[in-house]
């Protein structure tokens, strides 16, 4: 809080903003703990060891020392928050139970360092978090009580929603998050596209959809990091990100609990949409913590168009 040197604008910090949102004190506390943890993660990203950890995660992916460290930072903070009963992380093999009494507690699913293959080339990465009331995380994402991501780019920003709109905070020189955008809204349709996965493995329906986007003049904007790619689309209010089913991986790549649900929650809150091609992402019931899903996420009309192409209703069949 207070005035930033050189400006006359009153800075609204994260905690103060949350207190005005009419949400429980426990949820305010949890969100502030997540924001605090991100300060240590960015410090690790900026100065930590870029090498491999010599371990692999649940998906058989080699873990970087930074993946392991970021995971530890997040987990410790959540464990000691006093308001979390269960923790699931993309980097852990099983659920970490903090307490067996979920009364008044939250469960948290997170990806501590998404896009970590970009760390060694100094591109933007992020942390993604989904918050559930009680002990159960294997329920449709629509039942989440909040979602957050933190983007570690040239600046550090935090975007969150607790179902009352989407807000962006940016870290200042004192490492405080101050409000930079309120009530972020997406346009009905856009002209940016971010297509994940190898294109030669796209199915004919997906290939036709991509051609449709290109023919309508959409610009390619794909960094290979889910957080910065979604951040661009969400904050510009413009465009679509897709990671479709590939011919050899029908479930695509991205994980429902750790990546898709939190982003779908934020994008829907901003007036956008997210589907797996048939069903809204937030209505999918996860079969397990490691469930993946194809995804089309962004401006409402562009997502609807993807659904039409995938279901053969695009007029070309
Ligand atoms: P990464 O493997 O670098 O961690 O799910 C992780 C992710 O990156 C996303 O951040 C990104 O959108 C996607 O994978 C990129 O996958 P492709 O390289 O197959 O496009």
From TrEMBL:
Residues 8-181 form the Fructose-1-6-bisphosphatase class I N-terminal domain. The lineage of its organism: Bacteria, Pseudomonadati, Thermodesulfobacteriota, Desulfuromonadia, Geobacterales. It catalyses: beta-D-fructose 1,6-bisphosphate + H2O = beta-D-fructose 6-phosphate + phosphate. This is Fructose-1,6-bisphosphatase class 1. Mg(2+) 2 binds at residues 111, 114, 259. PANTHER family: FRUCTOSE-1,6-BISPHOSPHATASE-RELATED, SEDOHEPTULOSE-1,7-BISPHOSPHATASE, CHLOROPLASTIC. It is found in: Cytoplasm. Homotetramer. Pathway: Carbohydrate biosynthesis; Calvin cycle. GO terms for molecular function: fructose 1,6-bisphosphate 1-phosphatase activity. Substrate binds at residues 114-117, 222, 253. Belongs to the FBPase class 1 family. Keywords: Carbohydrate metabolism, Cytoplasm, Hydrolase, Magnesium, Metal-binding. Residues 187-310 form the Fructose-1-6-bisphosphatase class 1 C-terminal domain. It comes from Trichlorobacter ammonificans. Its EC number is 3.1.3.11.
């Amino acid at each position: 809080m207070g005035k930033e040197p050189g400006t006359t604008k009153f800075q609204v910090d994260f905690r103060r903003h949350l207190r005005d949102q009419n949400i429980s004190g426990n949820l305010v506390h949890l969100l502030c703990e997540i924001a605090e943890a991100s300060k240590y993660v960015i410090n690790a990203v900026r100065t930590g060891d870029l090498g491999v950890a010599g371990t692999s995660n649940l998906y058989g992916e080699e873990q970087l020392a930074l993946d392991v460290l970021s995971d530890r930072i997040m987990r410790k903070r959540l464990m000691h928050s006093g308001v979390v009963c269960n923790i699931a992380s993309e980097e852990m093999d099983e659920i970490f139970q903090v307490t067996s009494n979920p009364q008044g507690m939250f469960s948290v699913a997170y990806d501590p360092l998404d896009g970590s293959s970009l760390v060694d080339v100094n591109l933007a990465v992020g942390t993604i978090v989904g918050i559930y009331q009680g002990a159960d995380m294997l329920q449709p994402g629509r039942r989440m009580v909040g979602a957050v991501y933190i983007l570690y780019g040239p600046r550090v920003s935090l975007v969150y929603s607790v179902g009352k709109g989407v807000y962006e905070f940016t870290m200042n020189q004192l490492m405080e998050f101050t409000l930079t955008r309120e009530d972020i809204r997406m346009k009905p349709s856009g002209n940016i596209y971010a297509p994940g996965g190898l294109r030669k493995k796209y199915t004919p329906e997906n290939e036709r959809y991509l051609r449709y986007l290109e023919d309508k003049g959409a610009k390619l904007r794909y960094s290979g990091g889910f957080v910065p790619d979604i951040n661009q689309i969400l904050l510009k209010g413009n465009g679509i990100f897709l990671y479709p089913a590939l011919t050899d991986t029908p479930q695509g790549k991205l994980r429902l609990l750790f990546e898709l649900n939190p982003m779908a929650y934020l994008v829907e809150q901003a007036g956008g949409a997210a589907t797996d091609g048939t069903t809204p992402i937030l209505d999918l019931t996860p079969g397990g913590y490691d469930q993946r899903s194809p995804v089309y996420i962004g401006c409402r009309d562009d997502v609807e168009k993807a659904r039409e192409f995938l279901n053969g209703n695009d007029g070309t069949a």
